[in-house]
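Sequence design from tokenized structure. All designs in this work follow the same two-part layout: the structure record, then the generated sequence. An example of the structure record is given first.
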């Protein structure tokens, strides 16, 4: 079986000590493609170089959690980077972009401006987008209805079914990962069962959002316990999706890989 991890931050410092081994482990489990989204101008080169070196895919964008420390000129730098990579088959999307209404103290007006400007860039370069959605689904949708883009992926989606179907209606797929494996994640698991199968893609968000078997409490982490997620966990996460939908693991692999390629067409190259 072949898998696509549609969201993985391989450039994160958590992988500095063993990045090559992490990639090798992923390949042994059948994870043949990984999408590496940027989060700020400072890591554009890192994700691009990693994707080129290891035959993976990448996206360029400014994450909402990094907007407050981004300069106004960073949007122009993003445009220049997208223009320079226009013919790069490894570049598959604009992302990770979006809105975060969970973390307190963030400048929502500035977030909205950066989000809207990046949607315009995605439209200009005919690229899908990878969206950060955290308590912000309605505002994200409002902008998407105003600025049409070629679809994409709503990463780590945890909104309502109505919101989910609104994203699907705009040509988006929804990313499911480690959170799906927790029995108490009732809303996410309901969505995984209720949504049309064409809406589903898989992700790890490694090194974040560890699945249930890697989770460590705050006390355990303070004592030195680690909860690093990595792409090799994707097939086991997929087994939860297969169980919830009553599908075989092979069918889930085929389905979610096809959906990922529909959402990010350059993955097919």
């Amino acid at each position: 079986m072949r898998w696509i991890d549609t969201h993985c931050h391989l450039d994160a410092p958590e992988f500095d000590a063993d990045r090559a081994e992490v990639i090798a482990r992923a390949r042994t489990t059948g994870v043949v493609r990984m999408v590496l989204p940027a989060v700020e101008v400072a890591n554009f080169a890192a994700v691009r170089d990693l994707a080129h070196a290891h035959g993976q895919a990448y996206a360029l964008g400014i994450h909402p959690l990094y907007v407050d420390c981004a300069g106004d000129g960073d949007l122009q730098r993003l445009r220049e980077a997208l223009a320079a990579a226009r013919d790069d088959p490894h570049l598959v999307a604009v992302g990770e972009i979006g809105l975060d209404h969970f973390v307190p103290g963030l400048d929502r007006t500035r977030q909205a401006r950066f989000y809207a400007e990046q949607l315009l860039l995605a439209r200009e370069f005919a690229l899908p987008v990878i969206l950060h959605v955290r308590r912000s689904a309605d505002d994200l949708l409002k902008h998407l209805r105003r600025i049409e883009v070629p679809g994409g992926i709503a990463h780590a989606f945890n909104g309502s079914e109505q919101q989910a179907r609104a994203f699907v209606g705009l040509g988006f797929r929804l990313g499911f990962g480690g959170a799906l494996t927790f029995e108490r994640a009732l809303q996410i698991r309901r969505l995984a069962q209720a949504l049309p199968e064409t809406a589903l893609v898989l992700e790890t968000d490694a090194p974040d959002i560890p699945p249930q078997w890697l989770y460590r409490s705050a006390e355990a982490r303070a004592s030195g316990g680690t909860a690093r997620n990595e792409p090799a966990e994707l097939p086991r996460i997929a087994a939860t999706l297969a169980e919830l939908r009553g599908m075989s693991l092979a069918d889930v692999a085929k389905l979610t890989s096809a959906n990922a390629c529909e959402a990010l067409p350059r993955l097919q190259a």
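The first helix runs from residue 19 to 28. We note this feature because it recurs in several other targets discussed in the main text.
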